[in-house]
Every structure is written in C-alpha cells, then in structure tokens.
Amino acid sequence: MSNDIYAKVSALAKEERLRHGKASPYVGYVRLEQSTSKHNGSPIVAVDTIKGCANNCFRCYANRISRFKAKVHNQPVRCVVVGNPVPDICYRFGTFGDPASDWQWTVEQLDNLEARGMKKYYLVSKLQNIKGFPNDRGLNIHVSFDLFDPDQLRTTMVNFDRIDAKRVIRIKTLLSKHTCLMRSQKKVVAFAVRRGVPIIETRFYTQVKHDLKLLKLVAYKRVGKIFKYDGSVLRDVYGLDSHLMCSDGEGGLCCNCLNCLKLIEQMNGG
Ligand code: SF4
After folding, report:
1. pLDDT cut 90: percent of the chain above it
2. I need a labelling partner for 248 at 20 to 30 A (CA). Which of 171, 193, 236, 258 fits?
C-alpha cells in the first residue's frame, strides 16, 4: 500500500532522532554576537527562542546538526536571547527549534529584542500550536508545509487560516512516483494558490542514497554531498512561476540567497 510510505518515513525520522549517543539538552540561552559572527557578514542571521523540536520531520537538518554538537534534538528548551540586535540585520527565528512550541516564551523574547533595537525579523514554523499566538502584532511568518506527515500537514493547514499575520507558505516539494505524496503536494499547491500568499519552494533533499528508492524520487541528481531535484517542482509540474526558491544562490546559503529578506521587505512595503 502506498500509504505505508508515511509509516516508514516516520519510523526512520524517529530512529534518526534517537541516534544521539551521549547527548545533553540544549543550553537555555543564545548569544546574538556569536550567531552574527557565525554568519560571516550576512544580513540574515539565524537565532532561536526555542532550541530542540518535537516535530519529528523526516531528514531534519537541525536534528543532523544537533547530533554533531551532541545535543538532544527532541527536547525543546526555552532560550533567552542575550546581546543587542543590530538594526540592519534581519533575524530568522526557527532554525534549531520551532518558535510555535511555546508562543508565550517566543513573544516575550521578541518583545525584549524589539525593546533593545531589533527592527527586522521573521519566524519559520510548522504551526503545530497556535495557543498564545500574537494576532495583534503583524508578525512575518513563514509557514512550512511538510508532505511527509499527513496529520501535521492537516494541522498546519487549519492553523494557517486561524492566525492573523503576514504569511508566506514554504512548500517542501518533491518529485515522486508515490501517488499519495504527489496527491498531497497538489492539495498544498492549490491551498497556497487559492490564498494568493507568497510561496517559497524549499525542495526536499537528502544525503541518504536509499531515500531515492524509498521515496521513489524521479530525476534526482547528486550535487556535492546531497541528492536533489535540480529545478523547480512548482514550475515544472504545476506551471507556477511567480514563487521564490529557497537556497536559490551559490552554495545554497541564506547569505547568497536573501529571498527571505526580499519577501519581508516586500510584505512590509519597503
Ligand atoms: S529562501 Fe534563501 S534566505 Fe530564505 S531560508 Fe532559504 S536560503 Fe535562506
């Protein structure tokens, strides 16, 4: 049965999350100066109000990195953001954890940072929780739509319409012979198009060769250490051409891409 693919993917994601060896939970603070220096002069700097995540995404980037750092990924930890923001930098919340796992805490941190001079920022979230979402502050939020987990996808769709914010839809696309995955992708594309909100395509990629077979991926090529579809699924399959592509820059890094920055400037009328 094609639906078996969801169970297989979920089991693999769990197994990957548990392969942490002697790891410890994340520490409860993030130093802005450190995050900024790691980004080597980029105008987009990743910072988190929560580190660690229980979303259990398949081939999660943050889970992989936390393994190298010997940190427990599946245990979200509240982080105090320490240091003074630089007004010209755009801060991206939601790299190593989902800000939605604790809105009360996230909002407290945003308030403190704004009071200390933070001007530009956006959040990336799967919106599995909207309790305490600040509908009154016009947040810039990029909502991630993940095709590998139908239950989470449903929650994302429902919650997307329940919040009041400047929203962007991030679709993690793929090209597969699994009809259930492609059906679900078609639904997400129709959802996004109907709402007329900006779309960023964040293509699924993997470092694991076996995923090509497991997910029945079509036309995936090795690029350096990863396998990816070297084009736009949204354009090639659905004929969309007004969307942006995540990592659409040399090396696939935010510092070379800046599409998020373009979007928030556009949405804020700048
Ligand atoms: S769209 Fe570009 S700037 Fe935004 S997260 Fe992706 S790589 Fe970074």
Report:
1. 69
2. 193
Separation between Cα atoms, residue 206 and residue 204, nearest integer Å: 7
Expressed as residue numbers, the domain containing 197 is 4-264
Within a domain: 163: yes
- State if residue 263 touches ligand 1 by the CB under 6 angstroms criterion: no
Is 269 inside any structural domain?
no
Query: What's the domain count of the chain?
Result: 1
Could you give the angle at which helices 4-18 and 61-68 cross, rounded to 10 degrees? 20
C-alpha to C-alpha distance for 93 and 211, rounded to whole angstroms: 29
Q: Is the CB of 171 under 6 A from ligand 1?
A: no
Is 175 inside a domain boundary? Answer: yes
The rounded Å distance from CA 257 to ligand 1 centre is 6
> What tens digit of pLDDT does each residue of 13-33 get?
877 766 666 778 888 889 998
Residue of 68 and 243 predicted with greater confidence: 243
In a domain, 93, yes or no: yes
Output the pLDDT for position 62: 83
Query: 44: CA distance to ligand 1 center in Å?
Result: 9
Average pLDDT in the chain: 91
